[in-house]
Amino acid sequence: MASKFDAEKAENLGDIEMQFAVKAVTQAETYWGLLEKIPGSKLKLTKFDDDIFEQLLIDFPEFKDPSNVVEVQEEEMKSKEGKEKWRAFCEKFNEIEDYNFGTLLRTKCTDEYTQHGTIFVVRIQFYAFEIARNRYGLNDWVSKK
């Protein structure tokens, strides 16, 4: 009989972590490449974009103001309260493939991806912020450079 997996006692395997990091960087490079070619306001990231955006505004009404998605407030997002709110939001989209896989999010939509200007989030959080930024036209500057 197989033993139950205990995440608290699991080892961090360097090779696996490296594969996740490579995948996250590849995803960021792909997304940036799209933004360079197509204004964000014309991009559709998933077939669930409308649902994600609508739910974001319900669960986080502060994001109805475009200025509140310009910069990610990492401390708020990763606080105890923030984690609980985001966890509830994320679980509403568990039908989206890889919704909870780690990916990179720019902390400011006014900047490119940089070592100090990105944070690690789950994919549905990336979608939520980037769909909002795109809907508000905040990423359109990238294609105009």
Nutshell version of this structure?
50% of the residues lie in helices and 7% in strands. The chain has 145 residues and is mainly α. The chain has a domain at 45-144: yst0336 like domain (yst0336 like fold, Orthogonal Bundle).
Structure description:
The protein has 145 residues and is mainly α. The protein has helices spanning 14-37, 49-59, 67-70, 74-77, 80-91, 123-135, 140-144; strands spanning 102-106, 118-122. It has a domain at 45-144: yst0336 like domain (yst0336 like fold), CATH 1.10.3560. It contains seven helices and two strands. Helix 2 packs across helix 6. The longest helix is centred in the first third of the chain and has 24 residues, at 14-37.
The SS-based structural class is mainly alpha
Biggest sheet layout: 2 strands, antiparallel
Average pLDDT metric: 90
Unreliable stretches, pLDDT < 50, 5 or more residues? none
Q: Per DSSP, what share of the residues sits in E-state strands of 2 or more residues? A: 5-15%
Following the backbone from N to C, one meets helices and strands in this order, namely: HHHHHEEHH
CATH C-level of the domain at 45-144? Mainly Alpha
Tell me the CATH superfamily of the domain at 45-144.
yst0336 like domain
Kindly provide the radius of gyration, computed on alpha-carbon positions and rounded to a whole number of angstroms: 16 Å
The coarse silhouette is globular
CATH-derived topology of the domain at 45-144: yst0336 like fold
The number of strands is 2
The CATH architecture designation of the domain at 45-144 is: Orthogonal Bundle
Strands of the largest sheet, in order across it?
1-2
Percent helix:
40-55%
How far do the termini sit from each other? Answer: 58 Å
Compute the number of helices: 7
